[in-house]
């Protein structure tokens, strides 16, 4: 199973892949380049839009229409016309920016923060925005990264990367609040967990920063089930498409031999299942 390189420029930090299952489109961001992308897997068309501040994550609204988080605010974007309209802001400090996010089935926008341009220990937060109001649901984070819901949304998994753990929170679907339950997964190697997604069986697929791989975990037992290597060190996030295959974003490393960091990859898991 060889990851296919789908997209690669000189970007430093690709992140936040999210798949529109209804319209078969992939969205992702280049955080420091302040770019948001829309990729059509069928036509191979890639559209992009540049912002005035770092972008972090994307929430799907409709056909080629999304909500994009940037440090300067949240924008409604129409990739049909390549236009952006300011919608709202969640107030954060000047030395912070938004990072990974997710949306629940009620439309609540959940998003974490981290220090910018430098990492600041324990100053980050995770916010919940709903119908014009926002609140803080998790505090004292450092690098808020992966977020994933179980299918019934009763559990929210969350990664604060420097902890090298995946935290399990009980999620209240009525008011969007969380209650810490336990740490579901602990990383013992040299890599750190970054972004993640969850499959239909409730298994977590975690991008490993510094590990050059995406790993599959059972959050109920905390056991690693599988590992897929990629040709670069810093893996940032992943998401599933309509075929159950993985799109994976990556970032550049300091290694002179890192020719693929900052690329977007595709891993055909469906072929692996066919051969099992």
Automatic annotation (TrEMBL):
SUPFAM superfamilies assigned: Calcium-dependent phosphotriesterase
InterPro entries, sorted: 6-blade_b-propeller_TolB-like, SGL, SMP-30
Domain called SMP-30/Gluconolactonase/LRE-like region: residue spans: 15-251
PANTHER family named in the record: REGUCALCIN
Family of the protein in this entry: Belongs to the SMP-30/CGR1 family.
The protein, known as: SMP-30/gluconolactonase/LRE family protein
């Amino acid at each position: 199973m060889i990851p296919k390189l789908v997209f690669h420029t000189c970007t430093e930090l690709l992140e936040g892949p999210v798949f529109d299952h209804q319209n078969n489109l992939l969205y992702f961001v280049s955080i420091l380049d302040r770019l948001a992308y829309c990729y059509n897997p069928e036509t191979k068309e890639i559209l992009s839009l540049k912002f005035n501040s770092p972008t972090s994550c994307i929430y799907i609204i409709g056909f080629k229409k999304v909500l994009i988080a940037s440090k300067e605010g949240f924008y409604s974007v129409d990739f049909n016309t390549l236009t952006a309209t300011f919608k709202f802001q969640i107030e954060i400090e000047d030395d912070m920016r938004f990072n990974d996010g997710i949306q629940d089935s009620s439309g609540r926008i959940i998003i974490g923060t981290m220090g910018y341009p430098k990492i600041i220990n324990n100053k980050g937060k995770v916010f919940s925005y709903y119908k014009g109001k926002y609140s803080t649901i998790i505090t004292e984070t450092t690098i808020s990264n992966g977020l994933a819901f179980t299918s019934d949304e009763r559990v929210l998994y969350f990664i604060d990367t420097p902890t090298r753990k995946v935290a399990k929170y009980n999620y209240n679907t009525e008011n969007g609040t969380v209650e810490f339950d336990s740490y579901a997964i602990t990383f013992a190697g040299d890599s750190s967990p970054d972004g993640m997604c969850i499959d239909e069986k409730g298994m977590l697929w975690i991008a490993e920063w510094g590990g050059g791989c995406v790993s599959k975990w059972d959050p109920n037992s905390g056991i690693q089930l599988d590992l897929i290597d990629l040709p670069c060190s810093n893996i940032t996030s992943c998401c599933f498409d309509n075929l159950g295959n993985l799109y994976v974003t990556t970032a550049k490393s300091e290694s002179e031999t890192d020719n693929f960091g900052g690329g977007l990859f595709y891993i055909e898991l469906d072929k692996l299942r066919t051969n099992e």
